[in-house]
Each structure stands twice: as structure tokens, then as C-alpha cells.
Design a protein that fits this description.
The chain is α/β, with parallel strands linked by helices and 239 residues long. The termini are far apart. It binds S-adenosylmethionine. S-adenosylmethionine binds next to strand 4, helix 2 and helix 4.
């Protein structure tokens, strides 16, 4: 068995944990305080996140997509594969070292997506970008943490709160899509999305794509019309 080799580490801004990069042969692992956040051998759900979003928005005239969390670049690369020449992607990455790793030891994994002219990388909290402007994006793709029950930093809870989802709603174009990765379903969170005014689909995906692996969840939340009374609506999409 090849032993894991420590490559680098960095502090997550805003009282987060320590993010570290490890390598074993051709395999890479990013960990938060020692717990694995992601592994290069299983990126089926990160790819699916991009494919599900692009199936809904990539054919729009000039699609604008915001991706929160660069990680190993798989969601970004899969987005670029589906997006036409007129599409643009903004990638927000909170930890500058992650961008450095993607330009260095991780760059071959997803095929150098940061070099694509359609990509702008911003080394900031994705929440700050979501707050900037109304109706700015056709899709907002969040894989910043470990889903609504975060791992990386407490401040990410805002993204999944009613206030955060309301802000994401306003940052989307009409019929824009908010897509969120999670390790597992969370019925309360799906209902929160619905109450904000999203039409919600909860999609089960596999960590290794067609090869199976762990089961993860992606919420595809389409910006619908605002509800007049959020709490009295019945939940149709989730059944
Ligand atoms: C699980 S990884 C993303 C994996 C990515 N989808 C891929 O395909 O490789 C989560 C990433 O989000 C970053 N992150 C965490 N909180 C963030 C935030 N608030 N804003 C932007 N990036 C954040 C982490 O540093 C990490 O790089």
C-alpha cells in the first residue's frame, strides 16, 4: 500500500478549519481538520452537478453560471464541457491555496479548467458574490462544503438559511437554477427552498457515476414566482 504524502495546508478564512492536500500515487485527497472533504477517485456527483445544471441553462443565449467552491475543479470542467462558446463561468473559491493547488499539483485532474477563457476565478466567499447583484446568473452552483450540514466553516450556514436562499433567489434570472450538492437528502432543507419560491427537484446521484459508489443528493431549485404566503403552500414537487 502506498502511504499518503502530505502536500500542503491552509487555514479556511472566517474561523474555518484547516484544509490540507494529500497525495497517494495518482490519487489526491482534500481534508478539513483531518476529515476527507473530497477524493479525486470519486467525482461522479461533482460531474453530475454540472450536467444537471447545464441541461437546464446551457442553451440560453449567453448563460452566466456562478460556481461556489473550486475543490479539484471537476464541476467547473464538466460545466465547461457542456457550455457553448458564449457562456461564462465565475468560480468563487474561499481558500486561495485551493486555487494554487489547482494551478499546480491538481491541474491535470480535471484537464486545466482554470485556463479556459470563459472562466473568471474570484478568491472570495461565494456569499459575497451572491449578495452583489440581482438577476445576475442563469445558475448558481453550490458545492462549498458538505451540504446544509457543513464541515468547512460555520459561516457557510448562511448560504443554506432562509436569508441566504432568498438572496440567491434574487441573484438568479427568472427561471434560473440554484443547484446544491449534499451528502444526503434533507427534507427540511428542501421545504425551505420551496418556501423561498423555488420549484424543487431532489436528485439522487452516485459518487462514482455509472460505477456506483456512495449516494449523494443534488437539489435543483428553479426560480419560480414568489409565493404570497410561504408557509401555507403545499409541497408538490417533492411528493
Ligand atoms: C467539496 S469542494 C468542491 C468540489 C468541486 N465541486 C469539485 O468538483 O472538485 C468545496 C470547496 O469549496 C470551498 N469553499 C468552502 N466554503 C466556501 C465559500 N463560502 N465560498 C467559496 N468557496 C468555499 C472549499 O475551500 C473547497 O475548495
Amino acid at each position: 500500500m502506498i502511504p499518503w504524502e502530505f502536500i500542503d495546508s491552509a487555514q479556511v478564512p472566517g474561523n474555518g478549519g484547516e484544509l490540507s492536500l494529500h497525495k497517494r500515487g495518482a490519487e489526491f485527497s482534500i481534508r478539513v481538520d483531518g476529515d476527507e472533504l473530497m477524493n479525486s477517485r470519486a467525482h461522479g456527483s461533482e460531474d453530475a452537478l454540472a450536467e444537471l445544471v447545464c441541461a437546464r441553462v446551457a442553451r440560453r443565449p449567453r448563460p452566466r453560471i456562478l460556481i461556489g467552491g473550486l475543490g479539484m475543479g471537476y464541476t467547473l470542467a464538466a460545466t465547461l464541457q457542456q457550455l457553448g462558446a458564449r457562456g461564462l463561468v465565475v468560480v468563487a473559491e474561499l481558500v486561495p491555496a485551493v486555487v494554487t493547488w489547482n494551478r499546480g499539483p491538481l491541474s491535470d485532474l480535471a484537464g486545466h479548467p482554470l485556463e479556459d477563457d470563459r472562466v473568471t476565478v474570484r478568491q472570495v466567499d461565494v456569499a459575497d458574490i451572491i449578495k452583489e447583484k440581482h438577476r445576475a446568473y442563469d445558475a448558481i452552483v453550490l458545492d462549498v462544503d458538505n451540504g446544509p450540514d457543513g464541515l468547512t466553516r460555520k459561516a457557510n450556514d448562511w448560504l443554506y438559511s432562509r436569508a441566504g436562499l432568498d438572496t440567491a433567489y434574487r441573484a438568479l434570472q427568472p427561471a434560473g437554477v440554484l443547484a446544491i450538492w449534499s451528502p444526503s437528502p434533507n427534507r427540511a432543507f428542501a421545504h425551505r427552498l420551496h418556501r423561498v419560491g423555488f420549484e424543487v427537484n431532489e436528485v439522487p446521484v452516485r459518487a462514482r457515476g455509472p460505477r456506483g459508489g456512495g449516494r449523494h443528493t443534488i437539489w435543483l431549485a428553479r426560480r419560480g414566482p414568489r409565493k404570497r404566503t410561504g408557509s401555507s403552500q403545499t409541497h408538490r414537487e417533492l411528493g
